[in-house]
Every structure is written in C-alpha cells, then in structure tokens.
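Running co-folding for magnesium ion.
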Amino acid sequence: MNKPFVSLEKLKKQYGDVVVFDDVNIGIEKGEFVCIIGHSGCGKSTILNVLAGLDEPSDGAVIMDGAEVAGPSLDRGVVFQHYSLLPWLTTLQNVSFGVRARNPGWSKHQIDEHSKHYLDMVGLTAALNKKPSELSGGMRQRVSIARAFATSPKLLLLDEPFGALDALTRGVIQDELIKIWGETQQTVFMITHDVDEAIFLADRVLLMTNGPDARVAESVKINIPRPRNRANIIEDSGYYQIRNHLVNFLVSRSGELSASAAAGSQAARQTTVDVDPTQIDCIQIDPAQMTTDSLAGQEPPAAESAIDSTVKAVV
Ligand SMILES: Nc1ncnc2c1ncn2[C@@H]1O[C@H](COP(=O)(O)OP(=O)(O)OP(=O)(O)O)[C@@H](O)[C@H]1O
Ligand SMILES: [Mg+2]
C-alpha cells in the first residue's frame, strides 16, 4: 500500500516527566484539507511545529513525500498562531523575501507583482510600505497569510490563522484559501477552535483528547459536497449531525477519554478511529440552540446558546 503524502508516525512529545501527547499516527493524502481541533494545551501547535520541522518529537517521525522531516523547508509554509513578521521589513518586503527565495530566477518586478497580488487578496494594498509596528494585530496576521500563500508550498500549515480577524475578512480569506487550494492541489493542515470553520473548510477533522498524554482520538469525515457555500451549508442534511458530533467531543468525550486513558483503559488508548457522523446515531442538540456566528454574512442569534458558551469557554 502507498504511504500517504504526509505521515505522522508514533509521534510523542514530552517535557521532563510530562507527556504532552503520545502515539499520534496521522496520514494526510496529497491535496487533502485536514483540520485539527482540541482543547487549549493538548499539543496542536507542537504537532504543527514538528510537521514544519521547527520542533523535534521526543519519539516517532514525520515523513513527507518519502523523506523524513528534519528541519524547515520552503515546501512547507507556516502561518503561526502568533504572527511572526520581520520587524525591520515593510509589508511588501515581508512577503517578497519568501517569494524571492522560492523563485530565485524571477526579476524584482515579477517578485513584487506576485507578492502584491497576495497582499491585495488580504486587503493590504494600502499598507505595502508600512512596518509591522505600524500595523494592527489582524493586519499583521494577514501579512503572514499572504506570505504563506505567495510561496505556494506543497504543505500549508496554518495555526489558528483567522483568529485575529473580523468575521467579514475571515470569510473573504477562507474563500480565497479554498480557491487557492482548489487550484494548486496544496495539502493543508490547519488548527482551529472554530467548529463551523472546520466543517466549512475541511475534508477531515481530527479530534484530540485533553492533555496531558493527549492523542488523536477520532478522524471525522466531512462528506458535505464541494463547492460549499457558507450561506447554505447548514441546509445540508449532514451538517448538524457533524456539528453535534464535534461539539459533543469537545464538551464531553475529549475529557472522558482522557480520564479513561489516565485510569489505564486500553479502549481509551486505542488508535485513531475513523468516524462518519452522518452514518451513526449521535447526540442530538437542538439546531435552534446553536449559533452560526462564525459563518460570515449571517446574523448571529440574539442569545448565545449554552453549548456554544461552553465550547468557547473551554476550548
Ligand atoms: N518549552 C516547553 N516546556 C514545557 N512545556 C511546554 C513547552 N512548550 C509547550 N509546552 C506545553 O506543551 C503543551 C502543548 O502546547 P501547545 O502550544 O502545542 O498547545 P496547543 O494545543 O496549541 O494549545 P492552544 O490551543 O492554547 O494554542 C502545553 O501544555 C504547554 O504547556
Ligand atoms: Mg496552539
């Protein structure tokens, strides 16, 4: 059997006596869009940094395209959780230096035009010559996003890339991400805390149990047909089944599985289970009780539901 494009094999990370996660086995196919969700501190960013080659696992390995990841590469573009721009460079220069490294034969004109295209996409044409210190947090995050897209990496690693953005900008950039992903066959691994965003974007959502000693408990298939439309995705017959399943994991099962694993239950430590929520009976949460405020363009209900408040409070 062929290996997936990216495989995380028996990945473990430990600091001193504390095991952050263990036995993480994930296969990502070429061109797949995978989101990962889990509570704060379970190790999502650490997994992403290991994938990027910026952190080393305590055990296990990441294999990409047949070779072990052993350091950073232009084949992997990263948008960090906390934007990381070079403070002495302008917005345009922060993008163009990556484009130049990726395309050494290009003229300065080509490099600048290509970089400006991606900065225009994220609405920063008016800020090309500003330094990061002159930009807001959301603007800096948009420069990071433009930089990652502009270098056309084979693997795009996104650590909560839209967290600092307003709903309208987030919607625009999500749409661009889907468009670029559709055109380029890039493979995407993205961390998000937003269940609706994950359902809208992903082919598959990985669910991590709570740390310490976290693991990827489920791989949930999002079989909602593409192209997806944020205005009517909620009308898909599987939407609420999938959403209920993800929310229920975050609210209940992520903690229960951690507790069972800590108590030595072999079942709770078993390897990642493939799940298609549309094919199973899952807990029913009244759709009227749910907000869809992460879906830009829709009015959120007046009162936030208890379930969403819980998710936002604990994730
Ligand atoms: N240098 C370090 N030394 C000790 N522990 C660390 C170190 N770096 C990270 N950790 C721990 O590793 C765990 C995983 O951190 P990580 O940043 O990967 O979590 P996360 O899932 O991305 O969380 P969040 O959703 O809040 O971003 C945390 O419990 C954190 O305290
Ligand atoms: Mg993180």
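Result summary
The mean pLDDT is 87.
Residues 44-45, 81, 159 surround magnesium ion (ligand 2) (CB under 6 Å).
Job closed.
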